[in-house]
Write a structure and sequence with these properties.
The chain has 161 residues and is α/β, with parallel strands linked by helices. The protein has one domain: Rossmann fold. The protein is built from 7 helices and 4 strands. The chain starts with 10 loop residues before the first strand and ends in an 8-residue tail after the last helix.
């Protein structure tokens, strides 16, 4: 995680997309360039010894990270959350709360075709230390994912970088 406070209005960046879309790559780059604190549930789960598919642990980590993000935003720091944000309701809740705290809010949606996601997942599974993910699961996840519509995207602030 990177931490630095911004001299400008604090900014919350929600990185949205399915596994393999490039969320972590984008979040790491933005954290350096903005600068901002980057919070990644997958990394926190691995660091604490939980599996990526432990839904109870994931919910707890995401809630703890959201609490931390709110504190950081209230203190003037910018924050990047790379939870994936599969559902509109969660994106709306984060956007509205961050605005209450005086922050600008960006949605960075990484739209990647399903076949490309499968290819990336297969490649990532071969990397040393990777937690294998069955690329076939992407089809199921794709049906559960609520892609942001243009009217929803219009509710967010323009990208800063």
């Amino acid at each position: 995680m990177t931490h630095a406070s911004s001299p400008q209005r604090p900014r919350l960046v929600l990185v949205c997309g399915l596994p393999g879309a490039g969320k972590t790559t984008l979040a790491k780059r933005l954290a350096r360039e903005m600068p901002a604190v980057r919070l990644c549930p997958d990394e926190a789960l691995v660091e604490t010894g939980f599996g990526l598919f432990d839904e109870e642990a994931r919910a707890r980590v995401e809630e703890e990270q959201w609490d931390r993000a709110q504190d950081l935003l209230a203190g003037g720091a910018s924050v990047i959350l790379e939870n994936g944000f599969w559902g509109r309701e969660e994106r709306d809740e984060r956007r509205l709360r961050a605005r209450e705290l005086g922050a600008a809010v960006e949605l960075r949606y990484l739209e990647v075709p399903l076949e490309e996601l499968r290819r990336r997942m297969t490649t990532r599974n071969r990397a040393p230390g990777a937690t294998p993910v069955d690329p076939a699961l992407l089809g199921e996840w794709h049906t559960q994912f609520q892609a942001p519509t243009q009217p929803e995207r219009d509710l967010f602030d323009p990208a800063n970088l």
